[in-house]
Amino acid sequence: MENKQPASSIHLDTIEEALEALKKGEVIIVVDDENRENEGDFICTAETITPEIVNFMVKEARGYLCVALTEERCDELKLDMMVGQNTDPNKTAFTVTVDLLGHGNTTGISAQDRARTIKALVNPQTKPEDLGRPGHINPLKARKGGVLRRTGHTEATVDLARLAGFQPAGVLIEVMNEDGTMARLPELRQIADKFGLKLISIEDLIAYRLQNESLIRCEIGVEMPTTWGDFDLVAYRQVNTEEIHLALVKGTWEENEPILVRVHSSCVTGDIFGSCRCDCGPQLHTAMKMVEEAGKGIVLYMNQEGRGIGLVNKLKAYKLQEQGLDTVQANEALGFKMDTRDYGIGAQILRDLGVKKIKLISNNPKKRAGLVGYGLEIVDTVPIEITPNPHNQKYLETKRDKMGHNILKD
Questions:
Q1: What is the pTM of this model?
Q2: All domains of the chain, ordered by start, with CATH?
Q3: pLDDT-based confidence at residue 1 (cuts at 50, 70, 90)
Q4: Mean pLDDT of the 376-400 span
Q5: Residue 341, pLDDT score
Q6: Looking at residues 162-184, what average pLDDT do you find?
Q7: Which long-range contacts (CB under 8 A, 24 or more apart) does 124-132 make?
Q8: Per the residue annotation, which of 116, 341, 342, 368 is the catalytic one?
Q9: pLDDT on residue 215
Q10: Which region, left, alpha or beta, applies to residue 293 given φ > 0 means left and ψ of -120 to 50 means alpha?
Q11: Is position 209 annotated as part of the catalytic site?
């Protein structure tokens, strides 16, 4: 199936319309970010699954039928992870496969058998011993916080089922074209129209959740005079992980006034010890000076060490870099993407501080795209110039050449 219609012109249905469809036991289509998997999935709630829906999904979508469950439900059913070390770039959390034992099930593969197994996964009476392992249904463990934590179809499925008033569990399957290629947004719109299905995006689901709920709690704010300016330091707790994120706030602003903002990921080695291996410390201090000079703005200090992989893994990546790998190759060798950060929590903090429009201090175009996906309007991008040193020259060149950062242009 070929369609040259630009994605930006394709009609998407509203989240409210999709939720109404799910309440009626219908299937919907959910598409993710074109910079992520860029695919669409058929989705329905686990409680409303039928053999007819299973057959429709397998026949018309042609992908891999899975069931998205919460972490708590996976733990209750003792569904161990499929592998000990997940090297999938998107960290899709596959558990062991299962079949319902007895209750009319035979081989486990028929539409009737699979529907019964799916129903059992959300039945409070089901015990771990009621499920045979391996089987023909593949549960997926959704991250706590849903699409505000991870922008995947697994989390979207659980979120949508919960928002529709059902148990937080659902069935999902990737949509392929008849020729075996993945269906992209133009084809997905055609498929939705053909079968009368609602088509929504994860980006719109994120915006819907941000308008209706929050994963942050403001703990305390204090005055914080620094070498680079005078700020208020505000601490936020991320309620689903207990992590603490900080906001250095300068001045006040009108509701729709564009505000200078820097979203800075924590870097113990660079920010505290002054490591010359990166440009994090100079970027942080330069951003603080820029906000001070502007008289108003925010520097978010997010608990996302090592582009989201954590301090110990960052040090392991450093060791690999000492052996000749660059920063991207080192992350990939450890089983991570080049950048695992998400910006949903940072966007919520900015919204809590009364910010809707921002002038983003950044050289990273993906950071801009990530924040836009969480409902903020970026009216301008302000570059941050840092002079390289002999220790970070290669690192900065890699950020420019492999990660698309707008640096070292001369």
A1: 0.65
A2: 7-210 (3.90.870.10), 214-304+341-403 (3.40.50.10990)
A3: very low
A4: 88
A5: 76
A6: 97
A7: 126/77, 126/100, 127/77, 128/76, 128/77, 128/78, 130/100, 130/101, 130/102, 131/77, 131/98, 131/99, 131/100, 131/101, 132/98, 132/99, 132/100, 132/101, 132/108
A8: 341
A9: 84
A10: alpha
A11: no
Burial, 23: exposed, middle or buried (Cβ in 10 Å; 0-12, 13-18, 19+)?
A: middle
pLDDT at res. 144: 87
Q: 198-212, 213-227, 394-408 — which one is most confidently predicted on average?
A: 213-227
Cα gap 121→139, rounded to integer Å: 9
CA pair distance 93, 112, nearest whole angstrom: 25
Rounded to the nearest integer, the mean pLDDT of the chain is 91
Residue 339 annotated as catalytic: yes
The answer to whether 297 touches 250, Cβ cutoff 8 Å, is yes
Q: Are strands 259-265 and 357-361 parallel, antiparallel or unpaired?
A: parallel
Six-digit token pair at 68?
């998205």
Alpha-helix runs per DSSP H in 237-279: none
- Residue of 32, 113, 159, 339 marked active site: 339
Phi and psi angles of residue 378, each rounded to the nearest 5 degrees, phi first = -100, 110
